[in-house]
Design brief:
Number of helices of chain A: 6
Shape of chain B: globular
Largest interface: A-B, 26 and 20 residues
Shape of chain A: globular
CATH superfamily of chain A: Histidine kinase-like ATPase, C-terminal domain
Helix content of chain B: 25-40%
Largest sheet of chain B: 4 strands, parallel
Strand content of chain A: 25-35%
Number of domains of chain B: 1
Distance between the termini of chain A: 31 Å
Oligomer: heterodimer
CATH topology of chain A: Heat Shock Protein 90
Radius of gyration of chain A: 15 Å
Strand content of chain B: 15-25%
Radius of gyration of chain B: 12 Å
Strand order of the largest sheet of chain B: 1-2-3-4
């Protein structure tokens, strides 16, 4: 089941569960959950990141960790909303780390190294008018996270995963 | 310095509850690019921006900013939904 999340082409069937919008599974000292993301839905953009922040606060995670996770998740979520058709934000919180995976169905990133360059952006003018598209999204995620991996297939979508280590659980 | 003093200096209109005017302001960050806010601001600072859309509130929420001054935005604050405005102490 978890392998399905790693393949962009399998996200579409999962959209049939969209009416729920999220899921949470708790086992032992680990909590997993997910939120659906809708492309071009600027009205609700940021809701998933806000919900993730609420989860971390409920779990008693330190405020500096929450801020870093929220910033990284929000930048990733906005990339999905701006560029992709749909996506999913999946998280896992353990005693030692917060791991967030954002997977989307979208155009993909032809040159990831170039996309990670500060100031590089392919955002159209109407996105810049909203205050986004400055080319700092991926660099901000890299700056906020302890580990970051980005995989993308042009014409299919992108999977981004970041990990933030928890030094103190509370 | 607190929000009430800033309100008086700017002759601003407050669009949230009056209790928030007692919030102390330790630092200020000014930007119209949301990624710059996420990258360079500090938690609990006062954000000054010319943008007036819901994403400003979301950005402030993610960056742990709970005070915003919107500049040159007369009347446009009505576009911000009530649920989002509740998350932030706003001053226009």
């Amino acid at each position: 089941m978890r392998d399905m999340y790693k393949k962009p082409s399998l996200v579409l069937p999962l959209l049939s569960l969209r009416k729920h919008g999220y899921g949470i599974i708790t086992m032992g000292n680990c909590e997993d959950g997910f939120f659906f993301l809708t492309g071009k839905d600027f009205t609700n953009a940021g809701t998933a990141s806000s919900n993730l922040k609420a989860v971390l606060e409920r779990l008693g995670i330190a405020q500096d960790i929450i801020r870093r996770a929220a910033i990284a998740a929000f930048e990733a979520e906005m990339n999905v909303v701006i560029y992709a058709v749909a996506g999913m934000m999946k998280y896992r919180v353990t005693d030692t780390e917060v791991c967030v995976t954002i997977q989307d169905m979208g155009p993909g990133i032809p040159n990831i190294e170039l996309a990670m360059t500060e100031g590089y952006s392919t955002a159209p003018d109407h996105i810049r008018a909203m205050g986004f598209g400055s080319g700092m999204g991926l660099p901000n995620i890299r700056k906020s996270a302890d580990n970051l991996s980005v995989n993308s297939v042009v014409g299919e979508g992108t999977t981004l995963e970041f990990v933030i280590q928890i030094k103190d659980c509370h | 310095m607190n929000l009430a003093e800033i309100r008086d200096i700017l002759n601003a209109t407050v669009i949230t509850d009056a209790a928030a005017l007692l919030n102390s302001v330790e630092s200020v960050y000014c930007a119209d690019l949301m990624s710059d806010v996420l990258s360079f601001s500090v938690a609990k600072c006062l954000l000054i921006t010319g943008l007036t859309n819901a994403q400003v509130i979301r950005t402030a929420e993610m960056a742990a900013i709970n005070m915003i001054v919107f500049i040159q935005a007369s009347g446009r604050q009505s576009r911000l939904s009530g649920s989002l405005r509740k998350r932030i102490s706003l001053c226009l």
